[in-house]
Design brief:
Elements (H helix, E strand, L loop, with lengths): L11 H6 L3 H4 L3 E3 L5 E2 L6 E8 L9 E12 L2 E4 L1 H4 L7 E5 L4 H6 L5 H10 L4 E7 L14 E4 L7 H4 L12 H12 L2 E5 L6 E3 L2 E3 L7 E10 L3 E5 L9 E4 L4 E6 L2 E11 L6 E6 L3 H7 L9
Antiparallel strand pairs: 1-14, 2-12, 3-4, 3-6, 4-5, 5-8, 6-7, 7-8, 9-12, 9-15, 10-11, 12-13, 13-17, 15-16, 16-17
This protein binds calcium ion (2 copies).
Length: 297
């Protein structure tokens, strides 16, 4: 997994909450190999949090931690392991900017001041988190799905950025297609996460992240709630890593990109497999139904 929880590729919190986080399981970034910038993926955004790590009531960190996708004008789809278990008072934002890391690098002040500056400049929009009440569920269905929603906010991402919300799959769409068609289709993962592990004196590091990238991946297997996607470099694939959690895995069907699944976990160094949560399943659709108009069967 690539997150602090048992199966996630969450980056910022993994680092913030302790060394165990990176081995735990959430995904956060796109790998270095076979990847490219994705300025055209305007619906794909960074999950940004402002939080207090020292329990003194003063926020001390503003950072991108996960990825996600706008699925209508005011709802951003991500993973429950990205919305779960933050300190009281944590504030949540989405940025649909291409290079979020550069915004942080060039904005001065305390984390509170940075957030205020970036909000005023239209580089962040603040929202409210919701997650599947059944998370963390079971191995067969983790219920690892959540949103940052803006329906109760006066400013939504649609007020700030031009984007076309992602197309969700119809109920059971991946089952209906079957493995042969899914293997023949083109798959793309996108996100703001880090790169695959780099070995250095003192251990592994995961450089990069904070920039919207995409990479081709290859269909491997489908089961009840998961799509497994190959990220092996020699086959021309790229892949997801820490901070890509919650981000989109698109499949091209009849010339249209469909948001088939969200990045959740994978192998620890991020070289082999992306494990993504299906969005055509009954449980994913049940969670999403209050937030978006779902396509039918
Ligand atoms: Ca503090
Ligand atoms: Ca909505």
């Amino acid at each position: 997994m690539r997150t602090p929880r048992p199966a996630a590729l969450l980056l910022g919190t993994a680092v913030a909450l302790g060394a165990t986080a990176l081995t735990a399981g959430q995904a956060s970034a796109i790998n270095s190999y076979n990847a490219s910038p994705a300025p055209e993926r305007t619906e794909t955004g960074a999950f940004v949090a402002l939080w207090d790590r020292t329990d003194d009531g003063v926020a001390d960190r503003l950072d991108w931690v996960c990825s996600g996708t706008m699925i209508d004008a005011d709802t951003y789809l991500t993973a429950a392991h990205c919305t779960d278990d933050w300190p009281a008072g944590t504030r949540f934002f989405v940025s649909l900017e291409q290079d979020v890391q550069a915004l942080f690098d060039t904005t001065s002040g305390t984390p509170d001041e940075q957030a205020a500056t970036l909000l005023a400049a239209g580089k962040l929009v603040e929202g409210d988190t919701f997650q599947d009440a059944a998370y963390p569920g079971t191995a067969s269905d983790s219920h690892d799905i959540g949103v940052i929603d803006f329906a109760a906010r006066s400013v939504t991402p649609a007020d700030v950025w031009d984007f076309v919300p992602a197309t969700l799959p119809a109920a059971g769409a991946l089952d209906a297609l079957g493995s042969r068609a899914l293997d023949a289709a083109e798959w793309t993962v996108a996100g703001y996460g880090t790169q695959e592990a780099v070995r250095q004196p003192g251990g592994q590091t995961h450089p990069g992240g904070g920039v919207r990238l995409k990479a081709p991946v290859d269909f491997d297997a489908l089961n009840k709630t998961w799509v497994r996607l190959a990220m092996t470099a020699p086959q021309g694939n790229g892949g997801a890593c820490y901070g890509d959690s919650g981000g989109p895995n698109f499949v091209e069907l009849d010339g249209e990109l469909v948001l088939a699944a969200t990045t959740i976990t994978g192998d620890t160094p991020c070289y082999a497999t992306n494990v993504a949560y299906r969005l055509d399943s009954p449980s994913a659709r049940a969670f999403l139904e209050p937030f978006v108009t779902l396509p039918g069967r």
